[in-house]
Amino acid sequence: MTTSQQPDAPKPAAPKPGSVTPAQVTPVAPVAPAPAYTSDLEEAKQFAEVSDDGVVTLLDGGEPIEVGQLPEASKDEALAYYVRKYDDVMTQLQLLKQRLETDVANQELEKTLAQIDETIAQRQMVGDMTKLRDQAKTLRNALVERQARQQAEREKAVAEHQAAREKIVEQAEEVSAQDPAKTQWKHSTQKMRELFDEWQTAQKSGPRLPRATEDALWKRFRTARNTFEKNRRAFFSELDARNAEAKKAKEALISRAEALQHSTEWGPTTLKYRDLMDEWKKSPRASRKDDDALWARFRGAQDVFFKARDAANAEVDREYEANLAVKEQILKDAEQQLPFKNVDTARSVMKDIRARWDEAGRVPRKDMSRMEDGIGKLEKALTDLEDEHWSRTNPETKARTDSALSQLEDAIQQLEADLAAAEQQGNEQKIAAAKEALDARRQWLQVIQAAGE
């Protein structure tokens, strides 16, 4: 039998136009054509009987089944015809076995195998029918295993896809559950957009979930997004209200600052600006953009005043430059008197310096501290000298000093007598001890006498 004479394998139904999109088309691995199965004619004779008039009978397990008649053909030709029918079915089984390893749909394979089973059941062929049925049964079992395996893979894919979708939902719920006061809205908003994109991608590309599961997950995801958006709108609405209140408060401070900017009452106005600055620091902040603009206006009003004050002070300072030169000369003259040694002389010098200092008048503001430090150094020198003089002339201190002097003088007289006696005795040890004690007492005496002068 030629290839054209072999029974045609069932063809899959052609898809309707537009029913398949490019995204749904999966490339199918080409299937190599199965080699045609060929039975040995001599071996096939054990499964058939051929009569002289061309009637062919199949022997299936000892059961005779008439399959057809070819009266004009020889016995071998008649047998060969029905053996080829057997080979065609076996070839179809081999081809089906190969297709099990491809991605052909199970439904199509099931349909093909059912047609083959029907052909086998009709037994209109000659060959080892037991072997043929065993081959069909083996393929049937393989197809069942394939269906079970694919079902398990589908269930696994669905479970993994469901877990991925649940993770997206959980992340969205985590973002929406944040404290609005602590939420980083720019980052969180971007995160929500990314999660929504992930949801859409998973929904389009992943396996379909059960309708109830899909609806439940979408409900949770939608609720999380709505909650987040509600919190975001509420937060920024409240923020706008706070910004408006802050702007109002700072506008009032700016108005007060601008009202003072042309004042020439330098001292009082400076204090008022200081108070305004304290109020500004305590006032609530507006948005960054608004706060910067408000601060520029507030600072501008202060600058007008302080520039005018600095200009006025500079003019006054120029008038005091001559006074500065006089006071610097006074300090130079006075420093030549240091260190003070006599209290009366020092007091006289400082009295003259103070008179000249007051007469010289004010100095520029930038030099005031330096001048005050210079005169302060002279005043301290006088104070230290007076304290030292008092400690020496204090009656109580003098009485204690006189008592100490008297005791030392008596001790010296006694030691001198002891020394004389030791020298008369020629006792070198006592002489050395007396001299050592006498030298120490005389040194103490000199110290006390110098302190009392």
Task: Write structural notes for this entry.
The protein has 453 residues and is mainly α. Among the domains are: 101 residues, no CATH class; 84 residues, no CATH class; 73 residues, no CATH class; 58 residues. Helix content is 73%, strand content 4%. Strands 1-2-3 form a 3-stranded antiparallel β-sheet, with helices on one face. The radius of gyration is 61 Å and the shape is elongated. The termini are far apart. The relative contact order is 0.04. The N terminus is likely disordered.
Proportion of residues in β-strands: under 5%
Number of strands: 3
Q: Give the topology string: H per helix, E per strand.
A: HEEEHHHHHHHHHHHH
State the share of residues found in helices, binned by percent: over 70%
State the separation between the terminal residues, measured CA to CA.
Answer: 154 Å
What radius of gyration results from the CA coordinates? 61 Å
Low-confidence blocks of residues: 1-32
Shape annotation: elongated
* Overall pLDDT: 82
How are the strands of the biggest sheet laid out side by side? 1-2-3
Structural class: mainly alpha
Oligomer: single chain
Q: How many helices?
A: 13
Largest sheet composition: 3 strands, antiparallel
SSE blueprint:
Blueprint: H1 41-44, E1 48-50, E2 55-60, E3 63-69, H2 75-99, H3 106-122, H4 129-176, H5 185-205, H6 211-260, H7 266-282, H8 288-319, H9 321-335, H10 343-360, H11 365-393, H12 395-425, H13 428-452
